[in-house]
Specification:
By secondary structure, this protein is mainly β. It has a domain at about 1-90: OB fold (Dihydrolipoamide Acetyltransferase, E2P). Helices cover about 0% and strands about 50% of the residues. The protein has no helices and six strands. It has a five-stranded mixed β-barrel.
Amino acid sequence: MDIKGRVIQLLALQTGEGKNGTWKKQDFVIETDGQYPKKVCISAWGDKINEGALQVGNEVNISFDVESREYNGRWYTDLKAWKIDTLGATGSEPSSYSASAPSSRPASVTELPSSLQAGEDDNLPF
């Protein structure tokens, strides 16, 4: 799966020792574009951590896998990045959401339907 967004937060780098040696994990939050932006927390493990791309404000395209696991009767879901590409920095690309702007010129009477033209009696009670 792929998702595009802007990096808005880098969480603390986590490291540790496991049965296979030293590991490191970087969680980061991106915000998607659109009318209803979403915030998504994604994890990058080991050599997938791309410090150049993971900078607050960078536009990124993340390829990731979704994985869920059960622990003590509860389910936890992780989004694990396997590829991180930088698209550009904040401000270099316009937002994909733009509200439609109203027309700058007022509508004239001749543009209105004939049933709404001035001078006709409309039988409205108000």
